[in-house]
């Protein structure tokens, strides 16, 4: 079991603990805002299970039916998480509406808020861990889970700050109002998560900064060739697909052209994590004089 899968299992355990703490906080206080926080934690557990299944499948090697690997399955997990986040937000909005119609002051607020604060600190640590490791290991599912938890952390502490004012002001409507704010923030988070995941499913090119780096690596390591053109990139999970046409002198031997390609692949894999390179070699009469100039 690799580190990505271990982190995904850790998310399931942490999610279950945090949900138990938040539900206990809601049970003690009867707060709709804390109910909304607990409801989002249920979604955290469900999506953590989905993320674990996704990273487990994505780790499988390429096969006859999936010659490019199973990397994109992580994007499906992230889209599912976005959908569930939006569903949770709509449920919270429904509860906040009921709270506005029949407001009530909180019971045992100190104990409930303390439990919710503890859950928030646990989530804060774990979200930081998932985002850091998700980026380092290039796992969209882990990074998405971490960003979702970070949103949960922000809203949790916002709710806590607001609920501290309820017993002071006596304004019971503040509780459902905070729940509605939480729901809107969750909706925004879910939309952003789905948008990012869909870009991966649609074979979106790498960012401009990475593209510039790829062009520089090709230019600096293609000595003996004439030019490179028709560069295309896309990303899927941990893998960055790079393909381009390499123009070489017409009289160059196959062995020499192959050596240049090997040198380029090594350089690209060294500078671009998870690079999978495909190079189409062409003779000099195919030069377009509009691609990457070989230095």
Q: What layout of secondary structure does this protein have?
A:
Blueprint: H1 3-29, H2 32-58, H3 73-101, H4 109-137, H5 140-163, H6 166-169, H7 174-201, H8 208-221, E1 227-236, E2 239-248, H9 254-271, E3 275-283, E4 292-293
Parallel strand pairs: 2-3
Antiparallel strand pairs: 1-2, 1-4
Question: Would you write up a description of this structure?
Answer:
Helix 3 (73-101) packs parallel to helix 5 and helix 4 (109-137) runs antiparallel to helix 5. It is built from nine helices and four strands, in the order ααααααααββαββ. The protein has helices spanning 3-29, 32-58, 73-101, 109-137, 140-163, 166-169, 174-201, 208-221, 254-271, and strands at 227-236, 239-248, 275-283, 292-293. It has 295 residues and is an alpha+beta fold. A four-stranded mixed beta sheet has the order 3-2-1-4, covered by helices on one side. The chain is elongated and about 85 Å long. The chain has two domains: 3-201, Cation efflux protein transmembrane domain (Alpha-lytic protease prodomain-like); 208-293, Cation efflux protein, cytoplasmic domain (Alpha-Beta Plaits). The model has no long low-confidence stretch (mean pLDDT 82). It starts with a helix and ends with a strand. GO terms for molecular function: cadmium ion transmembrane transporter activity; ferrous iron transmembrane transporter activity; zinc efflux antiporter activity. InterPro entries: Cation_efflux, Cation_efflux_CTD, Cation_efflux_CTD_sf, Cation_efflux_TM, Cation_efflux_TMD_sf, CDF_Transporter.
């Amino acid at each position: 079991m690799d580190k990505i899968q271990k982190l995904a299992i850790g998310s399931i355990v942490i999610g279950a603990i945090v949900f138990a703490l938040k539900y206990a906080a809601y049970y003690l206080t009867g707060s709709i805002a804390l109910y909304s926080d607990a409801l989002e934690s249920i979604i955290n557990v469900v999506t953590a299970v989905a993320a674990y299944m996704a990273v487990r499948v994505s780790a499988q090697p390429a096969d006859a039916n999936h010659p490019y690997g199973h990397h994109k399955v992580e994007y499906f997990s992230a889209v599912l998480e976005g959908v569930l986040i939006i569903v949770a937000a709509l449920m919270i909005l429904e509860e906040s509406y009921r709270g506005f119609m029949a407001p009530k002051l909180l019971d045992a607020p100190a104990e409930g808020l303390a439990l919710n604060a503890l859950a928030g600190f646990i989530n804060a640590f774990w979200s930081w861990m998932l985002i850091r490791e998700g980026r380092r290991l290039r796992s969209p599912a882990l990074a998405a889970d971490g960003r979702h938890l970070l949103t949960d952390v922000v809203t949790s502490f916002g709710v806590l700050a607001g609920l501290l004012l309820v017993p002071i002001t006596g304004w019971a409507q503040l509780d459902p109002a905070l729940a509605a704010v939480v729901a809107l923030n969750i909706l925004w988070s879910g939309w952003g998560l789905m948008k990012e995941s869909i870009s991966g499913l649609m074979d979106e090119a790498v960012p401009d900064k990475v593209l510039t780096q790829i062009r520089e690596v090709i230019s600096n390591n293609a000595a003996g060739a004439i030019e490179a053109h028709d560069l295309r990139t896309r990303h899927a999970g941990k893998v960055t697909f790079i393909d381009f046409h390499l123009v070489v002198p017409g009289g160059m031997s196959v062995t020499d052209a192959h050596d240049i390609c090997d040198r380029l692949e090594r350089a690209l894999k060294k500078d671009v994590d998870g690079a999978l390179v495909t190079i189409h070699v062409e003779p000099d009469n195919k030069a377009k004089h509009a691609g990457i100039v070989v230095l």
